[in-house]
Every structure is written in C-alpha cells, then in structure tokens.
UniProtKB/TrEMBL annotation, chain A:
<dbReference type="InterPro" id="IPR050217">
    <property type="entry name" value="Peroxiredoxin"/>
</dbReference>
<dbReference type="InterPro" id="IPR000866">
    <property type="entry name" value="AhpC/TSA"/>
</dbReference>
<protein>
    <recommendedName>
        <fullName>Thioredoxin peroxidase</fullName>
    </recommendedName>
</protein>
<dbReference type="GO" id="GO:0008379">
    <property type="term" value="F:thioredoxin peroxidase activity"/>
</dbReference>
<dbReference type="InterPro" id="IPR024706">
    <property type="entry name" value="Peroxiredoxin_AhpC-typ"/>
</dbReference>
<feature type="domain" description="Thioredoxin">
    <location>
        <begin position="2"/>
        <end position="152"/>
    </location>
</feature>
<comment type="similarity">
    <text>Belongs to the peroxiredoxin family. AhpC/Prx1 subfamily.</text>
</comment>
<dbReference type="GO" id="GO:0045454">
    <property type="term" value="P:cell redox homeostasis"/>
</dbReference>
<dbReference type="InterPro" id="IPR013766">
    <property type="entry name" value="Thioredoxin_domain"/>
</dbReference>
UniProtKB/TrEMBL annotation, chain B:
<comment type="similarity">
    <text>Belongs to the thioredoxin family. DsbA subfamily.</text>
</comment>
<dbReference type="InterPro" id="IPR012336">
    <property type="entry name" value="Thioredoxin-like_fold"/>
</dbReference>
<dbReference type="Pfam" id="PF13462">
    <property type="entry name" value="Thioredoxin_4"/>
</dbReference>
<dbReference type="InterPro" id="IPR013766">
    <property type="entry name" value="Thioredoxin_domain"/>
</dbReference>
<dbReference type="InterPro" id="IPR036249">
    <property type="entry name" value="Thioredoxin-like_sf"/>
</dbReference>
<protein>
    <submittedName>
        <fullName>Thioredoxin-like protein</fullName>
    </submittedName>
</protein>
<feature type="domain" description="Thioredoxin">
    <location>
        <begin position="1"/>
        <end position="171"/>
    </location>
</feature>
Amino acid sequence: MLKAGDKAPEFELYATPDQKIKLSEFKGKNVILAFYPADWSPVCSDQMALYNEMLKFFNKYNADIMGVSVDSKWCHLAFEQDRKLHFPLLSDFEPKGAVSKAYGVYDEKAGESKRALFVIDKDGIIAWSYLSPTAINPGADGILDALEELTK
Amino acid sequence: MSLKPAIGQADHKQGGHKASIEIVEYGDYQCPYCGAAYPILKQIEDTFGDQILFVFRNFPLQEAHRFAMVAAQAAEAAARQDKFWEMHDAIFENQQQLSDAYLFSLAEQIGLDVDQFQIDLEAESTVKKVEDDFESGVRSGVNGTPSFFVNGQKFDGGAEDLMAMLKESTQ
C-alpha cells in the first residue's frame, strides 16, 4: 500500500457513464480517495453517507473527495441516485482493479478494493494513507487531521 | 478514539451530575437504529439512575434522512424553553410520523410556546449548535449513528452492548 511521501499514481476512470476523471485534473487541490469494497453493502453505505454530509468540511480544506470501487459505472450511477450522493464514484472496472492495485489496496481473493483512504496534496503527493479493516467504517477524523496538517 | 470536546456547558445532560459513568450518544432523530436504541437507553437510565450521566449530541445525516436536521433543530429549540428531553423523547417515540408539521404538534403537546418555538427553530444559533455537534462527532471518530462514548472513549457497540457492559461493571 502506498504511503505518505509516495507520488500518487495517475489514473483515468469513469465517474459517470460518459465522463472520465483524471487525477491530474485536480492539481492545485487536495484530493481524498476513498477505496471501498462494493456499492450497496451496508457498511460502505454508511461510510459514503457520512462523506456525503461532510463535503462542506472538505471544501474548507480545498479538498475534493472521490470514492473508488470495482463496480461498473451503471452500478455507481444507481447507487449515487439512491443515496443522493453529491460526489463522484469512480469505476475501477476495466482492467478490473487496476487503480486499486497501483495504490496497493486490491484484495485479490475477494476481487474487490480494500477499504482504504488516501489524502493527496495539491502537487499529487500522498500526504496520508490508512487501511481500515474491511468491516469497519473508518469515519472521517483521520482525513480531517491530514487535511488540517496540509493547510497549516 | 476520544471525545472532542469533553462534556461541557453546551451539552444536554440527564442523570447523576456526579456520576462515575458518563455516556454520550451521537444520534440522528430519523435514523431507525437510533430509534431502536432509544428504549434501551431509557432502560439503562431507569436501571442505573444517578450512577450514570447521559448526554445527547446531534449527528443528523440530512442527505439520507429528510427530517433529521429539522428534528435536531426542534429539540434544540425546545431546549430554549427548558424542554430538550421532552422533545427528544417525543420525537423518538413518534419517529415514524416525523414531518415538519408533526414537530409543531409535538411542540404543542409538550407545552411549548409555539410562536417562540418557531422563532428558535430557525435561529442561526440553533442551526450552529447542531452543526457544532456534528463536527465534534466527526472529530471524535463518529462513523455512523448511534455512536456511543463512555467516559470519553469511543464504545464499540450498540445500546444493548452498553447495557451488558454497565451491568457487568456495576456488579
């Protein structure tokens, strides 16, 4: 798993059925990447629901959050609409899990991303990363502490 | 993970003010799990009386729960008339019926000055109190509702686990 000080690997993933997002588009902003195993599972939903409430806090730190899982773009779309999520979910679908692997957070056995958080600074360097037990929603206190550190 | 900030002046408290066990709940009035925890927490308060101090802080997931925010504001508005717990209890006991209009009928039922309630409900300071609670929850590591803290430390479990733990530790 990549750690603080590592360069965040570039990626280009679908955020909607017809639009891709590149990490490099966010140069100059802080980025939070939240890898999670799957749409719809109850723990993930709580985690994403929590981040959904926190967008204005992230905003204060000039940070955008994106979720990443191996679910397809159509699955993400349905999940986002159902949970009224106001931030993008990226589809690490083809080749499956390639971005999760690049960040060192792919679970080969389950064929899913692990539950992991990265805070990336405005120059594209990882400032903080955290691997959570799969069944546990890691909350957001670690993210906020890392962002606070960055904007000091 | 520990509670930030510690229990203070701004908090709504129930039970023994010199209790050795302090429980803080972060809750959402529209969350079904908080609704399910409510009667168990009441049971805990009845069983342990002054041995515990119980504090409720707001953690409304407003995108997921349409009336979570306004319900939190309603309880805070009731607090201005010294009826926080009356409103808190009334909402959880009638969680299924939650709506804007219903909060006003609860306000009437518990004997609030409804005009004043309406003013306080929308006051900036009321909204800020709820938002401050939410932020303190996030800072303290709250990841969903209900989340409990016992003597300042995050408690990994629900209301029933809390009951079991208390029974054991007061034996």
